[in-house]
Amino acid sequence: VVPGSKGTVADAEEAALQAKKIGYPVLLKASAGGGGRGMRRVYGPDELAQSFAAAQAEAVSCFGDGTLYLEKLILNPRHIEFQIMADCLGNVVHLGERECSIQRKNQKLVEEAPSKALSAELRREMGEAAVRAAKACGYEGAGTIEFVLDKNRNYYFIEMNTRIQVEHPVTEMVTGLDLVREQLRVAAGLPLSFTQEKAVLSGHAMEVRINAEDPACGFRPAPGKTEFLHFPGGCGVRVDSALYTGCELSPYYDSMVAKIIVHAPTRLLAIRRMRRALEELVVEGYPTGADLAYLILHHPDFLRGEYDTGFIEKNLEALLRYGQACERGGERP
Fold first, then answer.
1. How confident is the model at residue 330 (pLDDT cuts 50, 70, 90)?
2. Among 132, 153, 163, 332, which one carries the catalytic annotation?
3. pTM listed for this prediction
4. CB of 260 closer than 8 Å to CB of 281
5. Do residues 143 and 84 touch, judged by C-beta distance below 8 A?
6. CATH numeric code, 78-198
């Protein structure tokens, strides 16, 4: 477990005392949070009061609850999460991991499964830890146990999301299971329809979140009217969206408008399939992050599977410059 405060911190003064014990840098997190909201990195004591106020205000705005806790910040780890399903009979199964390290503002942009960072032994160990955690709290339903993985392949539990997540289609594609169906079965008091032995991963899956935002302006949300829309299709391509031509995007909700998910026998083929899907995608009326995702899928570090949560921060400027150069030349980025 990542070192942190024992419960929530009452105010900035208490947070400062806890941070001094743990050692900087630290991370302030909303106790009722999720989706990267209500979080602030703090690199030194002079930043703490302002960061505490900002995180608390965002937590109140997003969740109606401003309570925060504090934990040690592990710099540029890999973000690995394990999908679990549990029924009312005490059966708990994990469905493998998802790599979620391509992020901006602590929110995921690209997810894939399986992760190139995990050996078979480490995958087994982390999966068993996820199952133990769910059993320890008597959990029922779909949930996600989230870890960060440091450069020495040490993993740390950071949180559990007690819901089905945006990126659940990645797991559905590699397992062939319908997680929403399983949720309904569990809610009806039925046992899981599969065992750990039958939860076998096949091939490679990847998801790109399409957000109505401008990466060149700090990922600022860009609501507007959807003037034209064309989604990709074909073998191994799935689109989850409620978007349609003429749809007016509200500035009061999350900026995600679609998810593009692909599946293929290998990681390289999945990357190629996702590139093709993004080439086919057309959304007119406002900027989206689709072109940035397309560029990420060509980056050497991503192709090698050697990336961490600092990837966007380190490479955004260069990726945007390259994309702009391609546009000036009349080419697809």
1. low
2. 163
3. 0.87
4. yes
5. yes
6. 3.30.470.20
